[in-house]
Amino acid sequence: MTNPGGFVATLRHPSAFVPIAMSLLALSLVVSHIVLAGTAREADEGTVAHLWQLLMGLQIPIIMLFTVRWLPRTPRATLAVLGLQLLAGAAAAAPVLYFQW
């Protein structure tokens, strides 16, 4: 028997999984750029940098909406999803911070 307010049920809402997908897309952009172009600094930010910034920045209002809407209803599951969103965001930011782009 599954808990209707459980983690998986909460994760199925778009405001829960879209930020995770956006972080994974941002991570894949950075990794593909590293593989194709290397880690050398560029004189100007390229398209990949701008897309990364948009993907990471646009997550904030989605995560805020998710938190406001679901935290009162399912606090434990919501906090678990927020942790997963934070982990995905940190994974997307790690290569950028490591290579100091």
The shape, in one word, is: elongated
Q: Report the β-strand fraction as a percent range.
A: under 5%
> Which regions are unreliable across 5 or more consecutive residues at pLDDT < 50?
none
Oligomer status:
single chain
- Helix count, DSSP H or I runs of 4 or more residues: 5
Q: What is the helix fraction of residues, given as a range?
A: over 70%
- The count of β-strands is 0
Q: What's the overall average pLDDT, rounded? A: 93
Span between termini: 48 Å
Radius of gyration: 16 Å
List the helices and strands in order.
HHHHH
When the domains are counted, the total is: 1
Tell me about the biggest sheet? Answer: none
Structural class of the secondary structure composition? mainly alpha
Overview of this structure, please?
Helix content is 75%, strand content 0%. The model has no long low-confidence stretch (mean pLDDT 93). It starts with 6 loop residues before the first helix and ends with a helix. It has one domain. The chain is mostly helical and 101 residues long. The chain has 5 helices and no strands.
List keywords for this structure.
101 residues, mainly alpha, 5 helices, 0% strand
Task: Describe this structure in a few short sentences.
By secondary structure, the protein is mostly helical. It has helices at 7-11, 14-37, 47-57, 59-70, 75-98.
Topology:
Elements: H1 7-11, H2 14-37, H3 47-57, H4 59-70, H5 75-98
